[in-house]
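Same chain as my last thread, 665 residues:
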Amino acid sequence: MAIEREDTLVHHSTYLTVPPQWLGEQFLVEAEHLKEVKPEAYRHEYLGEVTGTGGEVFANVTLRAITDEEISRFDKLRRGIDWGYAADPFAYNVCHYDKTRRRLYIFREIHKVKLSNRAAADLIKPEAGGARITCDSAEPKSIDEVKGYGLRVVGAKKGPDSVEYGVKWLQDLEEIIIDPARCPETAREFSGYELERDREGNFKAGYPDKDNHHIDAVRYACEGDMRRPGMKILNGEVISIDIQAIERIRQSQAQARMERVKATQEAERYYANITDIKVNKPKPSAAAAPDPVRSADNRLSHRWHGLLTDQKAAYVATYPPLIDLGSAGQNTRLQKLLGDRWGRDFRRLVVDATNSGCAWVHVWQEGGRREYGIVDSKQLTPVYAKGLRRELLAMLREYEETDDAGCRWTVLECWDAQECQVWRRKSAGAIPAEWKSYPCFAVYEADLLAGGSNVYRHGVGSVPFIPFPNNLLLKGDLHLMYKDLVDLYDRVSSGFANDIEDVQQIIYIITNYGGEDLGEFLNDLRRYKAIKVNNDGVSSGGGVSTLAIDIPVEARNSLLDRLRKDIITFGQGVDPDPDQIGNTSGVALKHKYGLLELKAGALETEFRPGVAQLVRLLLPDLPEDGAIKQTWTRNLVQNDLEQAQVVEMLAGVTSSAPWTKTTLW
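reply #2:
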């Protein structure tokens, strides 16, 4: 992009503005041919348009005036130095980095050959004062010298790929805005920096180390803003993470996540009574002949997983835990934040944890108050610290969405203790596309929409996701307890039904039939209740008999009963068979709920920290040492007749007032 100056006159003309006879027919034919086959080359060669060579490094540069008013609002100033003296100039830049909008403003430069370090310090100190300046660390003597002149300089942290990473970071910015009047040399370098070509005209690998003095100075200045590949952790807190690090985390956990998602989807399918016997149908074989005896194909699924899960949810979550903060005012605030949906949401947490092994709640800020919602665990990949306490450092959330044009995108969110970053890529295609910043968060200036950003400062103070584990193993009940038993129950029950249906079909065994074909046989049997047979004089004669299928009824019933008991026992549930309950006394009822109570107690132990964390995130002003009392109530079936008899026996010796207050009927 050309740098405009007030004392410059620009005239633009092309071959189209002159008489054709000046150019000749051959010139015009070649121009039209190039226009047809290579329109971009035609525009560059014949129309004089700036189309680029294809090797431009920075396509995000904007050259415009940066006003004094804008500069007065800049509060994220960065300063950098690239040393030089004889052939190479001394380069100094001041810039402002708008992290939210990912824009870099470059508005001050010093560019001079044969400038001594003392003279450079004299030029910089009035502007920089005691501000930090990052400079090329290849000259430690120069760093020590200018420190003696009162500048606060530090050497840049270089590495084997620091140049390439720094340039790519600059390329990935939404915009690099340079004031060409204030920074003419910087504008020239950024707008003219191109990849080099080899003899065959192909671009060389790497970035050229020439005409890049101010580019280097800007790289050094923004070193602290660049997110180096990898996750950096200080005192257990994520201080740096980028898309390269996230992609490595995704790849390292891809297999575990795939298995976790598959297990959760399978559990959700069993909860909806779509068991394996419904979906895993054998593929028909062309070579196998049809079995004339076996024609029934019943596939009976039984909702054992749904029954046991609903039992557990009803037992634990019919009455969600009562939370007491020790203050009527705080309790009222919490009740308003949780809302009327708390009971339904809590039950869903139990069901989700039972299916997936761990349910998750997300907390965010909206309209001056905290809100919460349950997130599909299949979308989440937690990142934990490597320590005994296993603290949550970050949360990756990956899901699909469709834009207004009907294009499918895979969206990737990364949440840490301070912010959320979002990327996305197109879902179609065998080879995954490259992740791109997704500016889905609105940015406002003076209550007016100013654009979008892919970074959101959530302000929660911690990773805003709360785990609600199902058990210590973080496993769902289906695969941990009884899936094999349920599958066998379905197969045995379906086979039993198929045998009974096949028995209803009569199979005829015909000997020495005297008719022509099977159709005649069936017609004679239907019309005359008799058939014609022949005697060949050798055998005992002809006749018709039937084939009966022997069904092992007692063995199958015994196996189904055994499987039923095992499913209830190992699933830690309560057998709903009325014959198993009858008019059971209170002690016996509690005994029947013993296994369910064990399972419910384990879940309560895992859920309690999650409930407390949710309360503290919803009420951030709650004192750190403030007590959060939780009262959990079980939904236990009671023997009403026994309770009534107890009341009747005590009626003669006890006042009726207490019973009137405490009984529910």
